Amino acid sequence: MLRNLLICGLVAGALGGLVATGFAEVVGEPAVNQAIGFEDAQAKAKHEAPMPQLVSRDVQRSAGLITAAVVYGLAFGGLFALMFAWVYGRVGRVSPGHTALLLAAGALLVVFLVPFVKYPANPPSVGHEDTIQRRTSLYFLMVWISIFAAVAAVRLRVVLAARGGATRATVLGALLYLVLVIGAGLALPGVHEVPRGFPAETLYRFREASIGMQLVMWATIGLAFAYAAERVMHGRPVFPRRSTARGAVATLRE
C-alpha cells in the first residue's frame, strides 16, 4: 500500500508542477521581466556591463521553468505521500480524501507560508552575491524549524487527545507550533536586499505570484492525491482497468 501511495504522490507532485508552471508563465513572468529591466537600467546608469546570462531567458522561462517546477513537485509529492502514510489515522477519524486535503493545506502553511513571512521571495535582480548564500541558508533553516514545530505539535496533539479532549489537544498543539515558529522568527536575523528605487509594485507582484504558484501547486497535489488516496485506502485501483471500463459500457448499452 505504501508503494501505491508513493506512486500516487509522485504523480500528483508532477501534475502540480505542471499546473504551477502554467501559472508562473502567465502571472509571474511579467514581474520577472520588469525586475530584469530594472537591473539592466541600473547597470546602464552606472556604465556597467549587464550580468552575463549562462542560460538565455527563452530557456529559463520554458524548459528551465518546467523542469524546476516538475522536479520540485516530484520531490514534495513523494514526501507528501510519506507524510500522509504517517498522519492518516493519527488526527482523528477523517477519510483519506479529507486527510489529504488537510495535509496539503498544512504543507502550504508549514513549508512555504510561515518561512515566507520571515524571508519573502525576491525577484532575480534583487540581492547581492555575498548575501544570497546566507539568505538561502537562513530560509531553509526556517523551513526546517517550521517542519520540526509542526511535527512536535502533531505529536503533542496525539498524546493529549488520547487522554481525552480533542479540541483542547488541537488548540494546545497549534499554540505550541505558533510559539516555536514565532520565537524562531524573532531570533533569526533579517536580510534586507531590496535596492533603493526598486519599483514597489514589481516587488509586490512578484511575491504575489510566488504565493499563487505555491497555492496552485499544493491545491493540485491535494486534490489529485485525495482522489487517489480514497481508492488506494479502500483497495480499489486508481485507474479502472480497460476491461472493467468496457464491461461497464456494455452493461449500460444493454
Question: In words, what does this structure look like?
Answer:
α1 packs antiparallel against α6, α2 packs across α3 and α3 packs across α4 (129-162). The protein has 2 domains: 2-126 and 197-253, no CATH class; 133-193. The protein is flat. Residues 247-254 have low confidence and may be disordered. The protein is mostly helical and 254 residues long. The chain has helices at 2-45, 57-87, 96-118, 129-162, 166-187, 200-233, 242-253. Helix content is 79%, strand content 0%.
What count of structural domains?
Answer: 2
Order of helices and strands: HHHHHHH
Number of helices: 7
Low-confidence stretches: 247-254
Query: Any idea what the radius of gyration is?
Result: 22 Å
From the N-terminal CA to the C-terminal CA, the straight-line distance is: 36 Å
Helix content: over 70%
Oligomer kind: single chain
Mean pLDDT: 83
Beta-strand residue fraction = under 5%
How many strands, what sense, and barrel or not for the largest sheet?
none
Class inferred from helices and paired strands: mainly alpha
Give the SSE layout.
Blueprint: H1 2-45, H2 57-87, H3 96-118, H4 129-162, H5 166-187, H6 200-233, H7 242-253
Helix pairs in contact: 1-2, 1-6, 2-3, 3-4, 3-6, 4-5
